[in-house]
User: Which sequence fits this backbone?
């Protein structure tokens, strides 16, 4: 899956959802490439009824194909710990080894966070517009290397649900870990930072 440069992310629609699921699709054919499934603990499910979801810990597992039950198909995980102001979000590979992390900026006009590798080197930055619909993936020199763009889902879905659709465009010929970090960053915009 990491040899691809574009992904269509479609959030599952549901009423009173306490966890999220996202399809990762080929934008041209709509073929399913993967699935991202949030897996908070039982206590966290209950706490989400009374505490802001963005403060609570969560884990999102990303699987290749259309099954989220087979752990051998897990590609990586996005893990956010409890936070009050600036969540630190870790990206773990299939074996649970940290390959990088995200840290939100303390002050910014639009949504923004930085992407770091395991050696604490900043490898990218994600900057959003003031609406929080379109995001640029920038390298450490602030050159655009990709984008995350919200796609209109129709009046009924936009007005009555919080489900969003995005297209993630990544750079050509990126290292597998960088592609994994950038795909995770695109998913984290909605799953971790906006929900």
Assistant:
């Amino acid at each position: 899956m990491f040899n691809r440069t574009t992904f269509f992310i479609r959030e599952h629609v549901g009423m009173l959802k306490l966890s999220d699921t996202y399809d990762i699709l080929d934008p041209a054919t709509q073929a399913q490439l993967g699935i991202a499934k949030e897996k908070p603990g039982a206590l966290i499910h209950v706490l989400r009824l009374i505490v802001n979801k963005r403060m609570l810990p969560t884990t999102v597992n990303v699987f290749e194909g259309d099954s989220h039950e087979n752990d051998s198909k897990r590609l990586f995980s996005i893990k956010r710990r409890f936070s009050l102001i600036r969540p630190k979000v870790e990206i773990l590979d299939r074996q649970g080894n940290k390959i990088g992390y995200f840290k939100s900026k303390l002050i910014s006009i639009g949504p923004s966070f930085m992407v770091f590798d395991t050696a604490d080197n900043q490898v990218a930055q994600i900057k959003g517009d003031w609406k929080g619909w379109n995001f640029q993936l920038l390298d450490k020199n602030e050159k655009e290397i990709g984008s995350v763009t919200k796609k209109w889902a129709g009046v009924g879905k936009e007005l009555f649900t919080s489900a969003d659709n995005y297209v993630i465009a990544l750079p050509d010929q990126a290292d597998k870990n960088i592609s994994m970090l950038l795909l995770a960053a695109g998913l984290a915009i909605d799953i971790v930072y906006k929900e």
Q: What stands out?
A: The CA atoms of residues 55 and 83 lie 5 Å apart. The longest strand covers residues 144-151.
